[in-house]
Amino acid sequence: MDIKTLHDADIIGISTAKSAFDTLATAFGQHIESWQHDVVDRLGHSEWTGTAAGHANTRISNLGTELQSAKQELGLVSRALQDAYDGFAAAQAHLISALDDAKTHKLTVAADGGITWDKDPNSPNFAGNDAENQAQQIQSRITAALNEADHADQTISSRLGHLATNASNGTGLDSATAKADTDAANALEQVPAAGTDPNSVKAWWNGLTDEQQHRMILNHPDQIGNLDGIPAVARNDANRTNLKNLIQDRNRQLNDLGPEPKQYLGYVKGEPVTNPEYEKWKAKHDALKEKLDGFQSIQDRLDGKKDGGLGGPNSDPPLLLLGIGDQGQGRAIVSWGDPDKARNVSSLVPGLNSTMAGVGGGDAMTAKRIYDSAVSSAGKNETPSVASVFWLGYDAPQLDGDSVAAKDRAVAGGADYNKFLAGLRATHEGAPAHMTAQGHSYGSLVVGQATQHPGGLAADDIILVGSPGVGVDKASQLGVGADHVYVGAAKNDPVANAPSPGMLGGLGELIYEQINHPGKQAWFGTDPASGDFGGQRFSVADGTITDSHDDYFGKHGAGGDSLPNIGKIVSGHGNAITRQDPR
Fold first, then answer.
1. CA Rg, the chain, in Å?
2. DSSP 319
3. Model pLDDT, residue 378
C-alpha cells in the first residue's frame, strides 16, 4: 500500500458493492420464499406417492438446504464488505489527517513518504525549530495508516477469497460449510473466553481489521486487556481504559454507601455496644477503599506522578499495563518495555504481602531495576533489548493468616502465570525472545507450579530468590534444564532459611518442623539453594535478618552481586554470573 493509492481510494465503491450484495441477498431470499410456497408446499399437499415421489422429495429438500446455504454465504460477503469499508475508511482518514497536519506544519510529504521542509529561518515557508520532531511524528502516523490499510486488505481479501472459492466450486451450498463460515464470522465479533489458548486468541486478533480491533478495545476493555494472546500494546490501551473505569466504579460504590453510621449504639455497664450497621458499612468501605487506593496508585504511576515522572506518557522505556482487574485481592501486571518486541523478556512473580498498591509504588521500581541491570549487562556488540514485567496475577499471601503455608494460591497462580507466558510467546514479533521466569519468596513456588503444566513453562531460564521451595525436589524437574535454573539465597534471609520460632506467626507446626528437621528440606520441597536441588547458585550479599529477603533486587542497595547477576541472566548471559557454592 502506498500513499497515493490509499489517499485516492474510492471507499464509497466498497459501500456500493455492499449495498448491491444486500439487494441480491434480499431478492434471493424472496426467491427462496417463492420456491417454498410454489413448489415445496404444493408438492407436500399433493397426493403423489411412490418411488419417484420419494426421490423427488429428497432432491427438493436438499435443494432447499442448498438455497438457504447460498443465502447465508451471500450475507457473509455483505458483512465482509462492510468490514472492508470500515477498515479502509479508518485508514484513509488517518492518512489524510496526517497529511493535513504536515501541511499545517509546512512539511512536504513525497510520494514515497519522505518528508522535507524549509530550514531557512528567514523564509516565509520556514517550518520552525521543531520541524524534525513534527516530521518524525507525522511519518510514524503515515506508516501506521498504510500498515492499517495493508492489514485490512489482507484480512478482508482472505475472507472474500474463501467465499469466492466456495461459490465457484459449490462448497458454499453445503449447510455444514455455511454454518462453519457463519460461526467464523460471528466469532470475529465476540471476544474469546478467558483461558482460551493464547495462540488461538492471537489468530482471532489477527483476523480483525485495525478498526475492528479498535472497536474491541473500546467496547470490551476489561476482556481485551486481560486476555493472553492479545499483543502488549493493545492490552495496554484496553487496560488503561479499564483502569479509569475501575477507579470511577469504586468511587461510585463508596458514594453509594452513604454516610458513616454511628459506631456505637450506647453503653451497657460502661462498655460500648457496637452498631452492627456500622460494622457492615466499615467492612464494605475498607474493602472498596483498599482496591481504590491500589488502582489509584497504578494510575499515578502511569501518569508519571511518582519517582520523578518514571512511567509517565514520555517514559523511556514505556511502561505498559498488561493486566488490571478486581478479582480477589486485585490483579495488576506492568512491563517496562514492550515484551512483543524485546529480545530479552523477564517476568517477575512477587510473594508474601504483595498488593496492587505496591505494584504502583516500589514493585514497579523493582521491575525497572531489573530492566536497567539487564540493559547494562548486554554484551559490547549487542544493542540492549529488554522488557521487564512485574506480574501480580494472583492473590499473594498476606500476613493476616496462614495462606503462606499452603500451596493453593501458588497452584491457581501458577496456572495463570503459565498462560501469561504462553501469551507472550504467541504475540512476540520476529525470532522468539529469550524469556526468563523469576519468582521471589512465595512467588518462586508460583513459578514452580507453573512449570508443571502440560507443555511446561514458556521460559528459557528460571530465577528463584528468597525461595521457601518450589514444589519439586530437583532443578531438572522445572523443564528448562538444571543448568538454566538460577538460585539466590541470602545467608540471613529468614524465608530462604529455617525461620526462628514465631517469625511468621500462625505457622507454628511448619516452623517447628523446619527447626527440628532442617536438613535440606524447604517449606515446599528441597531447598533450592542446596546442592541436592542441583540449580546454579549465584552470589548475593548476606544481608541482615530484617532486610535481606527484600534486597535481591537492590531495594536497599545492599544486595551485593544479586541484581547484577540477575541482569546477566535476563540479558542471556547467565554463564557470566558470579557464582556461590550451594549449601
1. 31
2. E
3. 85
Taking the C-alpha atoms of 450, 453, 454 and 457 in order, what is their torsion angle to the nearest 10 degrees?
0
Please tell me the predicted confidence (pLDDT) of residue 522: 60
Question: What are the C-alpha distances in Å from 70 to residues 30, 83, 156, 181, 499?
Answer: 13, 20, 20, 11, 72
> According to the 3-state scheme, what is the secondary structure of 132-187?
HHHHHHHHHHHHHHHHHHHHHHHHHHHHHHHHHHHHHHCHHHCHHHHHHHHHHHHH
Predicted local distance difference test score (pLDDT) of residue 502: 37
In the numeric block, which cell numbers belong to residue 478? 522445572
pLDDT on residue 500: 36
C-alpha–C-alpha distance, residues 164 and 172, integer Å: 9
Note whether 514 and 498 are within 8 A (CB): yes
Buried b (16+ CB within 10 A) or exposed e, 543-573: beeebbbbbbbbbeeebbbbbbbbbbbbbbb
Which domains, ranges and CATH numbers included, belong to the chain?
3-189 (1.20.1260), 317-576 (3.40.50.1820)
| pLDDT of 80 | 92
Determine the pLDDT at residue 299. 97
pLDDT tens digits, 406-449 = 899 999 999 999 999 999 999 999 999 999 999 999 999 999 99
Q: Classify residue 519 by its DSSP letter.
A: T
Distance between CA atoms of residues 263 and 453, nearest Å: 50
Where b means 16+ CB within 10 Å and e means fewer, 315-346 reads bebbbbbbbbbbeebbbbbbbbbbbbbbbbbb
Measuring CA to CA, which residue among 445, 441, 481, 501 is closest to residue 465? 441
Which residues of the chain fall short of a pLDDT of 50? 499-519
- Which pLDDT does position 95 carry in this prediction? 93
| Spatial distance between the Cα atoms of 366 and 352, rounded to a whole number of angstroms | 15
Residue with cell 533450592: 528
**Which residues, listed in sequence order, are joined to residue 440 by a DSSP beta bridge?**
465
The pTM of the full predicted model, rounded to 2 decimals, is 0.84
Is there a contact between 13 and 62 (Cβ–Cβ < 8 Å)? no
DSSP string, 380-446: TT----EEEEEEE-S----TTSSGGG-SHHHHHHHHHHHHHHHHHHHH--SSPPEEEEEEETHHHHH
Distance CA 474, CA 331 (A): 31
Beta bridge partners of 117: 107
**Cell numbers of 347, please?**
517476568
